[in-house]
């Protein structure tokens, strides 16, 4: 028998030919929130496809967040209001409309967290086995939000073609002494200025790459962080001979907000060294 954290989303077509989770739909979670800053209401999302959010009362500002490690680390989770299709993680509760969002792939929990304590709001989080799309959302005036402009907002659009967002950084070309180490600049893997949003199409990079070229052997490393204080070394690749040079290459799908390249030179002093990183969009 699987433990809860081992359950994965699996879908079949329902009678209306929509995708639906094979795990069924659990009951809604209802609870007060906002008595104190930091108050939360948390729900597991194992096997669920989408969530609906509604409120009674008005007052405290909230933020929606998701966790991928059983409610240990939390990331901002944009949700779509019934007044339009533009997603945002920050919510001002109101009984006049509701919010919907898809469950993020690989996430284990979803929560609402109070960021101010103006008053107490009762929140209802309703899970669904059917994925949400903006065109399914109708507001309280029974008008249908226009969803045609929702595609590829992070790209440079021209008729018939799309250019993805990409940034290249030349970290260094200064040769290292034997056994020397170079630590590159920390790069933000979002286009946002605040928060830890790494999943939204409009703000997140889809891939991080590193390339090191040297005339002697060495090892290229990838270090990642959520706060630019504690770094985790998650990949290490030794150089391999390519012609007269030695090359190492790393590719990484972002799971933490920050990344940096680290290169440790071998025993011999370098005469040639180039370290480049790149952040690629969709």
Summarize the structure.
With 282 residues, the protein is mainly beta. It folds into two domains: 4-134, Sandwich (Jelly Rolls), CATH 2.60.120; 164-280, Sandwich (Jelly Rolls).
Could you explain the architecture of this structure?
It is a single chain. A five-stranded antiparallel β-sheet has the order 3-12-5-10-8, with no helix packed on it. Strands 4, 6, 7, 9 and 11 form a five-stranded antiparallel β-sheet that branches. Residues 1-23, 134-163 and 192-203 have low confidence and may be disordered. It has 282 residues and is mainly beta. The protein contains no helices and 24 strands. Strand 6 (62-67) and strand 7 form a beta hairpin. 29% of the residues are buried. It is elongated and about 70 Å long. It folds into two domains: 4-134, Jelly Rolls (Sandwich); 164-280, Jelly Rolls, CATH 2.60.120.380.
Question: Which short descriptors sum up this protein?
Answer:
mainly beta, Jelly Rolls, five-stranded antiparallel beta sheet, 43% strand, elongated
Helix-strand blueprint:
Blueprint: E1 11-13, E2 19-21, E3 29-33, E4 40-44, E5 50-56, E6 62-67, E7 75-76, E8 80-81, E9 90-91, E10 99-102, E11 109-114, E12 121-128, E13 156-158, E14 161-163, E15 166-172, E16 181-183, E17 187-188, E18 207-214, E19 218-225, E20 232-238, E21 240-242, E22 245-252, E23 258-265, E24 273-280
Antiparallel strand pairs: 1-2, 3-12, 4-11, 5-10, 5-12, 6-7, 6-9, 6-11, 8-10, 13-14, 15-24, 16-23, 17-23, 18-22, 18-24, 19-20, 19-23, 21-22
